[in-house]
Write a structure and sequence with these properties.
Elements lengths: L8 E12 L2 E12 L3 E5 L6 H8 L7 E6 L2 E2 L5 H6 L2 E3 L12 H10 L5 H14 L15 H14 L4 E5 L7 H18 L2 E5 L3 H7 L2 E6 L2 E6 L1 H5 L2 H14 L1
Parallel strand pairs: 3-8, 3-9, 6-7, 7-8
Antiparallel strand pairs: 1-2, 1-4, 4-5, 9-10
Bound molecules: adenosine-5'-triphosphate (ATP).
Adenosine-5'-triphosphate binds next to strand 2 and helix 1.
């Protein structure tokens, strides 16, 4: 798929709405994600953040609106077609193959890019090192604790070598000492490989550190968007989200 997209945006979302039984999970959402940028999405529980990822990644068809990826309209395409175009995502609930080792799960992800088993094993070794999984990479996935599963989920999507990555709360369940290496890795991948990243996160330290742009969802709408320091000072954002969240972050 071409990168010669005149807008310079990897992802463009226009007027996307999605309702469930009359509940507006998304209401007329617009979002631009420039190539190589990091966009942090925040908002209270039920604001529509996961629904947004589901629509963008093809798991849900929007009721109206459009999603463009690398300049091409991908609205309503199935997830595998969108993945093939260069987008990968993580899930809040991780679904590794439990009887396989962590390493085998990462190799399986790398194989989805095509190429040989040998290439997939090399790619897996690289992300296993980068995500700090080496010590337990040969444990079966169903024996892993939450922090390890989070790392595995991240390694799995990185092994796919996406051009744009959607991360849904990859830091939740990690203690602060475990979060820093993941945040550093994401920053490095953007610098080294030009990875474009859109991430949903409640850990505000990470949001402030990583994001070029912070987008705030509330009741299905984007209520603020802009530079991190400006957005967190916006009274609407404090009222909708940060007032309660900052005390617990
Ligand atoms: N499959 C579904 N069926 C019915 N309602 C749904 C479904 N998915 C989401 N919703 C509703 O849509 C709204 C947005 O939910 P969503 O999970 O997108 O929010 P969120 O911002 O990701 O929340 P959280 O931070 O808790 O993950 C909520 O009211 C939720 O109950």
């Amino acid at each position: 798929m071409s990168t010669s997209n005149p807008s310079g945006n990897v992802l463009e979302v226009r007027g996307v709405s999605k309702s469930f039984n009359g509940v507006h999970a998304l209401a007329d959402v617009d979002l631009d994600v420039p190539e190589g940028s990091i966009v942090g999405i925040i908002g209270p529980n039920g604001a529509g953040k996961t629904t947004f990822f589901n629509v963008v990644a093809g798991a849900l068809r929007p009721d109206s609106g459009h999603v463009r990826l690398f300049g091409k309209d991908v609205t309503g395409l199935p997830p595998h077609r969108i993945a093939h175009a260069g987008m990968a995502r993580t899930f809040q609930l991780m679904r590794p193959f439990g009887s396989m080792t962590a390493r085998e799960n990462v190799v399986a992800a790398a194989l989805t890019r095509g190429g040989s088993h040998k290439d997939a094993r090399l790619a897996a070794d690289e992300v296993i090192d980068a995500t700090g999984m080496a010590a337990w990479a040969d444990a079966t996935s169903d024996s892993l604790h939450t922090a390890a599963l989070k790392r595995l989920e991240l390694a799995r999507v990185l092994a796919i070598r996406p051009r744009i990555l959607l991360l849904d709360e990859v830091l939740a369940g990690l203690v602060p000492a475990e979060r820093a290496p993941v945040v550093d890795l994401l920053a490095r991948l953007r610098e080294a490989e030009g990875l474009t990243l859109v991430f949903v996160e409640h850990i505000m330290q990470a949001v402030m550190k990583l994001s070029d742009t912070v987008v705030v969802f509330d009741r299905g709408r984007v209520i603020a968007s802009g530079e991190p320091t400006e957005v967190v000072a916006d009274p609407r954002v404090v009222e909708a989200y940060l007032g309660q969240e900052l005390t617990g972050a």
